[in-house]
Amino acid sequence: MSVLVYTESEGGNFKKASYEVASYGKGVADMLGTTVTAVAFNANGAGDLGTYGVSKLMNITDSKLEKFTAAAYADAIAQAAKASGATTIIIGSSADSKYLGSLLSVHLDAGYATNVMELPSSAAPFTVKRSVFTNKAFGMTEITTDHKLVGVSNNSYGLHENPTDCSVEAFSATLSDDDFKVQVQSVDKATDKVSIADADVVVSAGRGMKGPENWGMIEELADVLGAATACSKPVSDMGWRPHGEHVGQTGKPVATNLYIAIGISGAIQHLAGVSSSKVKVVINTDPEAPFFKAADYGVVGDAFEVVPALIEKIKAFKAANV
Amino acid sequence: MKILVCISHVPDTTSKINFTENNTQFDTNGVQFVINPNDEFGLTRAMWFKEKQGATVEVVTVGGAEVEPTLRKALAIGADSAIRVDAPALDGYAVAQELAQVVKNGDYNLVIAGRESIDYNGGMVPGMVAAMTGASFVNTCIALEVDGNTATATREIDGGKETVTASLPLVIGGQKGLVEESDLRIPNMRGIMMARKKPLNVVAPVATGVETKTVSFEKPAPKGDVKLVPADNLDQLIDLLHNEAKAL
User: Fold this and answer.
1) Chain B residue closest to A143 (CA)?
2) Would the pLDDT of A1 be above 80?
3) Which residue of B22, B157, B178 is the best one to mutate when testing the A interface, meaning the one whose CB has the most A CBs within 10 A?
4) Looking at the domain that runs over A201-320, which CATH code has it been given?
5) Does B189 touch chain A (CB under 8 A)?
6) What is the pTM of this model?
7) Among B122, B220, B218, B19, residue whose Cα is nearest residue A280
8) ipTM of the modeled complex
9) Are A279 and A258 in contact, with CB atoms under 8 Å apart?
């Protein structure tokens, strides 16, 4: 009855978020006195899974599963859980994991807790702390079923090394036509840019930038930090930036290590969506902007002066700290 | 086409969140309830199907009599009829079981739900309903077209989007993008008057139990004061981010 973690890969290589899921799985396995088994699709070997405490990888190699297909992935993971005897299953909080999680929950009759922030506070009853009310509160949630499914919030637990020998085993799942009722036709993904979900740092800008033509400095700041760019709701509503960049309550949630908000006043809906970021920096001309109350560090000043200066300072810092 | 729109009755986005009964219950005192924003985008898209492709639109929610004003608002926006499953919304699984029963009885071609509610943020109900009823499922759906028995949907993925085709019946977890914010409708007086006469059917729950229970709530620890750095001393900001916050 090991703990099963679903570790997402891209092009055969594990994503960083998968190592966080593995680390979390190891933490839960230690509480339960068991080991961690990972399940992955078309992975090139175990990568660094062993470093983060995984003892065994069940690798499903199937050309039909090269493109993410939620129903088929959920079916296959459920079969891996049954084959390994795992009753505790851990997944992440990427768009794909959230998509398949609810399907997996039904396959396994597993109570499902999403947006989980910490290791369980107790193993029996199995109780986890979840973020609720769009980060305005936490709920202590008990999963009362025999099978338990936990969706770990991105960047909440972090990476924890627990070097373990990780064996790789091929696993084949029996899939039906019903698993492929949804067919991917095309994927439109910027491969040269960091996505908001994967980023350690997010640089976000709002109406204070005055117009879409002024985003060059935002992109440059993101570039020097290796960050993703994001924006406030009015900015995406006005069409200055694509909808996919809108972060906040009705946009994307942000749970990053460093969130830099430039020219965003900080409406309650925006703050709710970004408040699980660890460190928040606000740059705004208005010292009364509500965002300053929610931020860790603030600069009261004109973005058009502060941002270019900050870019130079960070470049110098990076050059001195390589 | 027969469409079911699943509506969650949630606190308005600007609500202050507090708890009572020794931090075990959400304090609804003074809280305005609204249609969950993700569901409202889906409802508006359903109205588009009704007007352009001749669909019927039914709305459903799970809850006590207190949620009926939210259903009436959906009727005032233009839904044809409403169903209230008379049961408390205890957890995602319980709600999904009730909705699945409504879906099975109603023979819908398309079930539109929001990707998550802004109160308990479970994000699991749409997918569970799909799995329980054997329907196709597309989550984080930002565009949807239906032609005959096939839907073409765009799904938001991390760092981009993808286009998928799916056979009906289909359940979607929708969000902003299904329609633009500016397309959302405010009920007018005629709509409100008409909504009073539209059917709102209360149905008994199947009450199959729960899989999770939230035993208590807590609020985030109060945050320390912001540290302000002068705009002409950004070296200090770099230093704080590097040495104190360990974020650089």
Assistant:
1) B212
2) no
3) B157
4) 3.40.50.1220
5) no
6) 0.93
7) B220
8) 0.95
9) yes
